[in-house]
Amino acid sequence: MIDFLRGTVAHRETEYVVLDVRGVGYRVFCANPYAVGAGKDGAEVTMYIHYHVREDAHLLFGFLSREEQSLFRLLLDVNGIGPKVAIGVLAGGRPEVIAAAIRQENLSFLTKLPGIGKKTAQRMVLDLKDKLGAWTSAEADGSGFGLLEIAAAGPAANGAWAEAKAALLALGYTEAEADRAGQTVKPKLKGDETADAVTKLALQALFQQSLMK
Fold it and tell me: What is the pLDDT of residues 171-203, one digit of tens each?
């Protein structure tokens, strides 16, 4: 069983990074590949791993914190959520923000996460609300509320981009960084993209901008 991998980022795509660990390249699926190692190829990182076995594949899912890893595993306990949906949920915000939304029964926020409909959101609340005591700090000090409000306001404001921008802010990017990504991404949008797709485009843009510095 693999608990974590420590190595350098050799390559990244929209769904995964390739981690070079002593000359062996591990394909690690993660929520936001362009945020791993601050978007820099060659950066040394530690990724906490969930090893998923299917009949046709053995897959590695990676996380930058134990909290992400733990929340991912809790999400897998919810009927209707598989690894790909769970990793999409984590792309929607920090673990404590998502946990706060579940504890607050904030279905408006949860149904904006990739792959989550109303019934699945209700199951998330029912199955996980009482299991999330480790993430009470976001509620206790109010740190999660602003992000939840931003995300909830997204569709009423600017559709998919507003949701994508909220996700960038939840990931720790500044307002200025998100706006710069928006200047690159918004002219390319056709109007039918999902928030998840726009978020990935924005992360790609931020990665490309970091290479130009």
Answer: 777 878 888 888 888 888 777 777 778 888 888
User: b or e along 125-141 (b: 16 or more beta carbons within 10 Å of the residue's beta carbon)?
Assistant: bebbeeebeebeebbee
What's the CA gap between 26 and 151, in Å, rounded?
Answer: 33
- What is the distance between the alpha carbons of residues 177 and 180, in angstroms, rounded to a whole number? 5
Output the six-digit token pair for 113.
């996460």
CB 92 within 8 A of CB 98: yes
Helix, strand or coil, per DSSP, at residue 51:
strand
pTM greater than the 0.70 cutoff:
no
Write b or e for each residue in 30-46: b if 16 or more Cβ atoms lie within 10 A of its Cβ, otherwise e.
bbbbbbbbebebeeebe
Torsional class of 88: left (φ above 0), alpha (ψ -120 to 50), beta (otherwise): alpha
